[in-house]
Design a protein that fits this description.
This protein folds into three domains: 197 residues, Aldehyde Ferredoxin Oxidoreductase,  A, domain 1 (4-Layer Sandwich), CATH 3.60.9; 208 residues, Aldehyde Ferredoxin Oxidoreductase Protein, subunit A, domain 2, CATH 1.10.569; 188 residues, Aldehyde Ferredoxin Oxidoreductase Protein, subunit A, domain 3, CATH 1.10.599. Helices cover 41% and strands 13% of the residues. By secondary structure, it is α+β, with helices and mostly antiparallel strands.
Length: 629
């Protein structure tokens, strides 16, 4: 095969044994790479029904078809385990140099089994695997861990993924970091911590062979030129942080734990403010001609020296959603999360839940005792020092509050409500246990469906159903019978990019339009020039459908029911009071109708299960035997 090696590396942390598994070419055509291939590997290797933090939950990593080639933004990988947050599929994406090292090492994917008795790092050096003591790395942050490993190896070409203190302490909102990028959502860092795996390091020395290098170079150059034009200007100049003011104008910016959709001080925590006052530089991932990553730097004051990579989702979660208008404190909080190994989105949403609990009298100052503040502190919306301190407490599991919040809003609210007889679940903003993204979906009816039915929980990266709402292709305040098909098509569209994987910021660089008609012909050409296959439009479509289907099948096998496709209580019972989106919510009647439309569009049963004939038609006969109806 071209572009693939035809083999998966298996590593057993308990026995220190490794083995190679061969895969046929047809398997690669079905699952391609990224989250699709990693999800399939997890399906094949997990102990069904296991606790996510038990040895039976594997870490499954799959590279991309374009990693190590000239294809722009093709340097990404997928990571899948059973999520400690949701109990369902936990699929994450990250990028830059690590997936290129993986491809050059001679492996298409890695499956890490069982758990080590002692803390360990794993070093994959082409076809050799070395288990190294990690005790001296414990307590180090993610960036510090990667740097320490490079120094030990004496080779800057060694690339590592690692966890910080949050993962070591099994915080369920912990992430995995590599090259400054994050496999951020679903609690992957806790899975690594449960296995006592501090880091995975890879050095690859093999070249990547493609079927038609001349054609691939030509196509890649065309895309690279387009990526320097107007279609990516927003990302090159301000990055995703430009969304703060856009969402605020629409009344969709989560504010004070989604109590409101308009933040009166949005101008102080937006991309434009960052660009003018705190921007240090812009950087790009490997294989990326865009360079969207904005690095913020605090130059003076209490947080002087703090530096962090800034994205919209981090800004809303630790900024407006915490009622915080201090960019310096936001940068410090993001820096704490990045180095401590916490998902910024889950962290910010969980802190905002705690602030609302304080506001409503569920918590008192004494609940927030810690070493820095032995008498506790005022956990009020807008208190920057409280946000910064709580990020530190969470990644260290310090005190009652740090330990409580480290596991996310679903578990925290359940524990508090049982202990104190309260109803804090009503403002615990999660779906399936995963904290929500930076869009208030009470006034985005199509997106509310995409979030409710999301296989990994509420997620803006796995469902692009906000697009037709925000662009005005449909009336975002109402529902009609088109929404099921829209939710289906946008999630499968996103799944194609997540499987190749390609960064979605390149999507307009094919023809200027972010749709199938524009992208699929060029993507098929890229696949064919890379692999020598004969993919067409429909074959690209099937990449997304299979990727989503294997994740849905995973959830069904792990006990999913129709009740798991839900929305937060707040979005169904409390209307926003101010701004362009005031007065709206999603009623249970609307949600039920939307789910009916969606299941029908997917070709599933009324209860959201997958018919055997549907799975067989997708070539997933073995899956049909296990969960098909």
């Amino acid at each position: 095969m071209y572009a693939y090696w035809g083999k998966i590396l298996h590593i057993d942390l308990a026995t220190r044994k490794t083995w190679s598994e061969s895969k046929p070419e047809e398997w690669y055509k079905m699952y391609i790479g990224g989250v699709s291939m990693a999800s399939r590997l997890c399906w094949e290797n997990i102990e069904v029904g296991c606790d996510p933090l038990s040895p039976g939950n594997p870490i499954c990593i799959a590279g991309g078809i374009f990693s190590g080639t000239p294809v722009p933004v093709g340097g990404k990988y997928g990571m899948v385990s059973k999520s400690p947050l949701t109990g369902f599929v936990g699929d994450s994406l990250s990028g830059s140099w690590l997936p290129i090292s993986l491809k050059r090492s001679g492996w298409d994917g890695i499956v890490i089994h069982n758990a080590s008795n002692d803390w360990v790092t794993v070093f994959v050096d082409d076809d050799k695997v070395e288990f190294r003591d990690a005790s001296h790395l414990l307590g180090l942050g993610c960036g510090a861990t990667e740097e320490a490993i490079r120094e030990e190896m004496g080779d800057d070409q060694v690339r590592s993924a690692s966890i910080g203190p949050a993962g070591e302490k099994l915080a369920r909102i912990a992430n995995v970091s590599n090259d400054g990028r994050k496999a951020g959502r679903c609690g992957q860092g806790a899975v690594w911590g449960s296995k006592k795996l501090k880091a995975l390091s890879i050095r690859g020395t093999h070249g990547v062979v493609v079927a038609d290098p001349e054609e691939l170079m030509k196509l890649s150059f065309e895309i690279q030129q387009a990526a320097q034009g107007p279609h990516t200007e927003k990302y090159r100049v301000l990055g995703t942080s430009s969304n703060v003011l856009s969402m605020n104008r629409l009344g969709l910016l989560p504010t004070r734990n989604y109590q409101e959709g308009v933040f009166e001080d949005a101008e102080l925590v937006c991309g434009e403010y960052l660009h003018e006052h705190n921007k240090a530089k812009t950087i790009a991932c490997a294989q990326c001609p865009i360079g969207c990553e904005q690095v913020g730097h605090v130059k003076e004051g209490a947080y002087a020296g703090a530096m962090a990579h800034i994205e919209y989702e981090s800004l809303y979660a630790l900024g407006s959603n915490c009622g915080l208008n201090d960019m310096k404190a936001v940068i410090q909080a993001i820096a704490n999360c990045n180095e401590g190994g916490l998902d910024t989105m889950s962290t910010g949403v969980t802190i905002s839940w705690a602030f609302e609990c304080y506001e409503k009298g569920v918590f008192t100052k004494e609940d927030f005792k810690c070493e820095k503040y032995p008498d506790g502190f005022e956990a009020e919306f807008g208190n920057g020092e409280a946000v910064v301190t709580l990020t530190e407490m969470m990644y260290n599991r310090e005190g009652y509050m740090g330990n409580l919040l480290a596991d996310g809003t679903r578990r925290a609210s359940k524990q508090v409500d049982e202990e104190r007889g309260t109803e804090s679940y009503k403002w615990a903003m999660n779906i399936k246990g995963l904290e929500l993204p930076g869009y208030d979906a009470r006034a985005l009816k199509t997106f509310s469906l995409g979030l409710a039915t999301g296989v990994r929980g509420g997620c803006h990266n796995r469902s692009a159903a906000y697009d037709p709402d925000i662009k005005g292709e449909v009336d975002r305040f109402t529902i009609d019978d088109t929404r099921g098909e829209l939710a289906k098509s946008t999630e499968e569209y996103a799944a194609v990019y997540d499987s190749l994987p390609l960064c979605k910021f390149i999507r307009r660089c094919f023809t200027g339009k972010a749709d199938r008609a524009g992208a699929w012909p060029m993507i098929a050409k890229l696949i064919n020039a890379t692999t020598g296959w004969d993919f067409g439009y429909d074959d690209v479509d099937l990449i997304g459908e299979r990727a989503h289907t294997i994740k849905k099948a995973f959830n069904i096998r792990e006990g999913w029911t129709i009740e798991d496709d839900h929305l937060p209580w707040r979005w169904q019972h409390e209307k926003m009071k101010e701004g362009p989106s005031a007065g709206y919510l999603v009623t249970q009647e609307e949600l039920d109708a939307l789910k009916d439309m969606y299941y029908k569009a997917k070709g599933w049963t009324k209860k959201g299960l997958i018919p055997k004939k549907k799975l067989v038609a997708l070539g997933m006969d073995d899956v049909a035997e296990e969960i098909g109806v």
